[in-house]
Amino acid sequence: MLRTILVTLFAATVVTSAALSAQAPAATSTPLLDANTATEAQLAMVPHLSAGLTKTIVSRRPFKSITELDALLTPTLSRAQITEVYGRVFVRVDLNTGTDAEILLIPGLGNRMLREFKEYRPYKAIDQFQREIGKYVSKEEVARLERYVVIK
Fold this sequence. Notes:
mainly alpha
């Protein structure tokens, strides 16, 4: 009986782990498109972006910030859908001037990391970002976050 319970628990763990992996943010090997430069064909490949929404994105460019793109998507898509879109297409946030609202639109980023992002301003180079944020998260997570930011 104990063996049956252990096998069941192991199977449940494997299934749960697989489900969580499917919901994880986009891997760093997946290209993150720039909403201001991606072609209409590239945008059409992004989940939840209909042909009409894709055309609207292209016609409203350039987006000065991710909050402008967010305002365009919010009436049409759910927050979960928008987060999935942001795993594939984004307007990068300037680490030195990005607002709280812009930084918090980075998928998977919460208030704690928002504070850490802002604490180390001004950023002079991306290696400073890697070093400082690397104190709080893994190298893989730093690499993922790095895709969403820029230093101007």
